[in-house]
Each structure stands twice: as structure tokens, then as C-alpha cells.
Specification:
mainly alpha
Length: 183
């Protein structure tokens, strides 16, 4: 029978715990204890532990849930810095050497970003290019492409803008619109 060590006072709540803080239990009991903790305190860590241990969510869903909820301020304590250092020492980054030309996952991500931009759900994926130097020829091509894009006129302030600026600052979000509605 597989036994787990359950922390009576969870490490995510109090940090490193003393040895007398452990309770030996089976997997089902461990999941139940985390469910009780979640119902009592409402901590997302207990919910993820309960759902993972009980088989309600898989490993990938657990990792996504952690990334969605994590507060990185806990990384700043000395104890957690040492723990993370041990964990990642000697490991290569998971994306090392992968490009859209040699990896299916990266290719799918690039296509998804293109589709999101075409549908208007994503306006700027240029963070990767910030700070990089471009040749004059490449800059001229970028300017020509930008100038070829038709501009949109805001119905509130009657100014013309590139679609990315329009979506961010005009239309429903236009400052002139809020001024015109004041009594």
C-alpha cells in the first residue's frame, strides 16, 4: 500500500515545517484532507492537490492551474530560493534548440498566434523583437507594410489611426467619447 506524507500545516502556508507536522496516510485520505483544507481556508494550492490526488485532473491540468494561480512572491524567501536552485541545477530549458522549423509544438504555437492576430484577439506579439537591431532594408519593408495597412477613423474624435492603436485607445475606449457623455 502506497503511503503519503501529508503536512498538517501546509508548506505553502507556513514554509518549512517541523517533522512532527507530518501525517502518514493513503492517497484517498490525502486527497480528502486537502479537500477539507480547501473548504476551510480556500487556498488554491489545496484545491489543486485535492483534485490531482483524487484523479479529477491530470498532470498537465495541474501544471496549468499552478501557472494560472501562482504568486511569485514566495520565491523571494531564502528557503525557497535554495529549494528552486536544487530543483533546476543541471537541467536544460525545455525549449532549448526548438524552432518552428524543427518542432511541432512550437509550429502549432506560432500558427495559433497568427490565427489570434487575424481574428483580432491578439494585437502585439513583438516582445521577442524589442531591443534587436534591424537592417535599413528591413526597416523600410516594415514601414511600407505599416503604411499599406488601411487606417481606421474613430467615430468619437474623428481622427485616423493604425488598427492596433485604434483598438487600444479609440472606439469604445476613446476619451472624447467619455467627455461627450458628461452632463
Amino acid at each position: 500500500m502506497l503511503l503519503h506524507d501529508h503536512h498538517i500545516w501546509p508548506q505553502h502556508a507556513i514554509g518549512p515545517a517541523p517533522k512532527n507536522n507530518l501525517l502518514r496516510c493513503n492517497v484517498a485520505m490525502h486527497a480528502f484532507l486537502h479537500k477539507l483544507e480547501y473548504e476551510k481556508w480556500g487556498r488554491w494550492q489545496d484545491k489543486v492537490a485535492w483534485q490531482t490526488l483524487s484523479g479529477l485532473i491530470g498532470k498537465e491540468e495541474m501544471q496549468l492551474e499552478i501557472l494560472r494561480n501562482i504568486d511569485r512572491s514566495w520565491c523571494s524567501s531564502e528557503w525557497n530560493k535554495q529549494r528552486l536552485s536544487k530543483l533546476f541545477t543541471g537541467r536544460a530549458p525545455p525549449n532549448k534548440g526548438k524552432t518552428k522549423h524543427n518542432d511541432e509544438g512550437v509550429r502549432k504555437g506560432a500558427l495559433a498566434a497568427k490565427l489570434a492576430m487575424a481574428e483580432g484577439r491578439l494585437y502585439c506579439i513583438g516582445d521577442h523583437w524589442r531591443g534587436k537591431k534591424f537592417s535599413t532594408e528591413h526597416k523600410n519593408k516594415l514601414k511600407a507594410a505599416r503604411n499599406a495597412t488601411p487606417k481606421i477613423t474613430c467615430q468619437n474624435c474623428e481622427k485616423s489611426f493604425h488598427p492596433s492603436h485604434f483598438a487600444r485607445y479609440h472606439g469604445e475606449k476613446c476619451k472624447s467619447r467619455s467627455r461627450s457623455r458628461r452632463p
